[in-house]
Design goal:
The structure is a single chain. Helix 3 packs parallel to helix 4. By secondary structure, this protein is of the alpha/beta class. A 6-stranded parallel sheet has the order 2-1-3-4-5-6, with helices on both faces. Helix 3 links the parallel strand 3 and strand 4. The protein is globular and about 35 Å long.
Length: 154
């Protein structure tokens, strides 16, 4: 029996919808010591099978249409079932949060988010994923972090 390909412990996959998003978060994560792979939003599920990231960040510009489907697809694939998924959204309402949680996101953060806050969340989710073992869904409840746009720019 062959061993499953292990995820790169520092690789974060960013599924981006806009160039500004990609540039901001790629730089932020590289400065924090992570290797970063950036893929077009529609390729996130396929790319995560071959790249094997330790964590996936999805920008959900419209969770009601494609965003929730992408999170669900990542959760149904054996290769990504236990990979933490952070969703970055530009809105904060209870109904949307509930839908994202049900789809299987590990964390919901309001974009833009402070560098330190995102890095702390990534470290927490990676530690939890290591504790639960490869390929297993990380246990625990989904974290939601809300910041005002003014606070996020500080």
């Amino acid at each position: 029996m062959s061993q499953p390909i292990q995820a790169d412990p520092q690789l974060v996959l960013i599924a981006e919808a806009t160039k500004g998003f990609r540039d901001r978060y790629q730089t932020l994560l590289e400065e924090a010591g992570h290797a970063v792979a950036v893929v077009p939003y529609d390729d996130a599920a396929l790319s995560s099978r071959t790249v094997r990231p330790s964590l996936i960040i999805l920008q959900l510009s419209d969770p009601a249409s494609t965003g929730l489907g992408m999170v669900r697809e990542l959760r149904t694939q054996a290769e990504t079932r236990g990979t933490p998924v952070i969703t970055l959204v530009r809105f904060d309402d209870a109904h949307t949060r509930e839908q994202i949680v049900r789809a299987g996101a590990s964390a919901i953060m309001i974009d833009p988010v402070k560098r330190a806050t995102l890095v702390r969340q990534i470290r927490r989710l990676l530690a939890r994923a290591v504790a639960t073992g490869p390929g297993l869904p990380a246990s625990g409840r989904t974290a939601t972090h809300t910041e005002s746009p003014e606070a996020s720019r500080a």
